[in-house]
Amino acid sequence: MKEILLLHGPNLNALGRRDPEIYPRITLPELEARVRAWAGERRWGLRAFQSNSEGALIDALQEAAEWAAGALVNLGALTHSSYALHDALLDLSRPVIEVHLSAISQREPWRRVSVIRPACRGFVEGRGVEGYRLALDLLAAAVAEDEEGER
Question: 80, 81, 126: which is closest to 99 by C-alpha?
Fold first, then answer.
């Protein structure tokens, strides 16, 4: 069974109470359960990890290189500033899809730039929880493409 990493960055542990005018009323455990169910429909396992620490997120990506077929990442505000996470995503050498609950391209000017996007195979924003299902579809296509290329 393939396994994927679902990686969440700073402040995503506050979902459900954080900025309800921007973010859906769902907790992180509820969101992870939905993504786990969607992954299960593909017969994929899912390991979820959240941290408010950049170093812990990098460690999780480095560990995932040993087992993950790919990753879905919402790195919160680190999306806009962390070249270290960009490099760790590249080093993962697996397909990665960047996903955001809100439409970051329509928010504050500093949020409109993603320094991790060049290290990702796809991007979904502003679709709320459903965006994670769309991101999973993109990840499935990218994993299949890589497997086809290896044959």
Answer: 126
80 is catalytic: no
Q: Are 30 and 134 spatial neighbours (Cβ–Cβ below 8 Å)? A: no
H or E segment and range at residue 125: strand 122-125
Name the active-site residue from 8, 83, 86, 100: 100
Largest CA distance in the chain: 47
CA distance 34 to 65: 24
- Whole-prediction pTM value? 0.93
Please choose, from the candidates 148, 69, 82, the residue with its C-alpha nearest in 3D space to the C-alpha of residue 118. 82
The mean pLDDT value for 96-115 works out to 84
100 is catalytic: yes
pLDDT digits 0-9 by tens, 20-39: 666 668 899 999 999 999 99
Catalytic entry in 23, 80, 83, 132: 23
Q: Which SS3 state, helix, strand or coil, does residue 61 take?
A: helix
All structural domains of the chain, each given as residue ranges with its CATH number in brackets, are 2-150 (3.40.50.9100)
Half-sphere exposure of residue 110: CA atoms within 13 angstroms, side-chain side? 6
Residue 96 belongs to what H/E stretch?
Answer: strand 96-100
